[in-house]
Each structure stands twice: as structure tokens, then as C-alpha cells.
Amino acid sequence: MKLLRQWFKSMRSLPPVMRERIDAWRELDEPDLNMGHPLMRYVVVDVESSGLNLSSDHLIAIGAVTVSGARIAYANSFYSVLRQEKASNDDNILVHRIGGTSQIEGEDPEEVLLRFLEFIGKAPLIGFHSPFDEIMIRKAIRRYLGRKFNRTWIDLAWLAPAVVPECGGKPKSLDEWSQMFQIANFLRHDALADALATAQLFLILQHRATEAGLGSVQGLVDAARRQEWLRKLERRGL
To answer: Do the strands 59-68 and 71-81 form a parallel or antiparallel pair, or are they unpaired?
Structure first.
């Protein structure tokens, strides 16, 4: 009931110009998921949150970077801290280093999320353990914009072991993959820095996937889901 009230409140409170921007985003054409990688624009996303509880914690910052033409578009990036009603606790701040003042004085959440939608367009989204990022963003968009957020995500945590046979199919952390491929991360647990490191990993995996005959978005989605499914069967001893 509380979520329903928040949804109706968001629907009522958004000014017409914001509704028009949302409608313009919704009307964008969906990409062809069978398109080859060099022709596809991807957006790599990372978030920082008040904690790891998917039910009670909330979005603090979003970082995103574009991969287009099989290259990272370094000049085409997104980063913002959403204004918080109350700063997260000290232990949480020690992780992402977004201080209490920065959180309280952050940008208007509705405007941040609208700009994020406009930045990503309808591009396929890339993340590492992407279900967490997806849920945090989806909750925020539902709360502040009163809209659903359903996009195509590719989770590199599962794609990586699927296309890097030397790892034996075993999942690794982002830090472990970064060390394996000598990817530098100048500021770990910063949303934009982590998105950039993830983008570098994605380019490596994209190349490996293409060599394995996975030359499209749908091929990457299927490979990641298949690897996750196989891992679940392995855990069950099947």
C-alpha cells in the first residue's frame, strides 16, 4: 500500500515537462538485439547505495559510460549523486566515500533519473552483478517518476566465465577479473570509476565472445543466462 501511494504521488507531482520527457524516452525505438557488436551502442552502469539490502536500502549515486563501435566513449559518460533526505551511516560512507553533506546536497532525484533515462536511451545495459544495479534503479524510478523500468541487461559476472574457458567456468569478483586482465581502477567503489573498469572488462569479453561466435547482444544475453543456470544446477548437485 505504501508503494502504491508513492506511485500515485509521483504521477501527480511530476510537472508536464517531465512527463513529456518520459513519454519521449518511452517512444524511442527498441534496438535490434541480433545486431552485431560494432553497430550496437551499449551503456555500462554501476550504482552506489545506502547498503546491500534490496528491500530497505536505496540508490545514492549512478555512474554510466557508453561503449559504441566496440570502443569506450570516454567523453560520453554520466555521473550524479541523488539528493537524500537523510545521509547513510558512517560505515556505508567509508565504502563509497560520498559524504553526508554531498548526499544531503545532491541533485534532485527526479531530474537525475530523467537525465539517466535520456542518457541510456534504449541501449542494452551492462553491469557486474547487474541484478543489484537493476533493482536499485528500478525502485528509484518507480518511487520518483512513477514508472516501470524494464531493460535488457547483460551481467558480466556470468558472461565472463562463459567466454573465458581458462577460468574453468567459475565466477570471480570484479577485482579478480580486473587483476587477470590488468584493468586499472583509479577509484574503487566510485560509481563512475567502477563503470569504466567494467566497460574495459566488457570490451575484452566482447572480443572473446565474438571469437566464440557470439556476435550479437542476444548471444551475450543467452550465454550469461546459460552460465548462471549451469552454476545453479552445479550448486544443487545436478
So the answer is: antiparallel
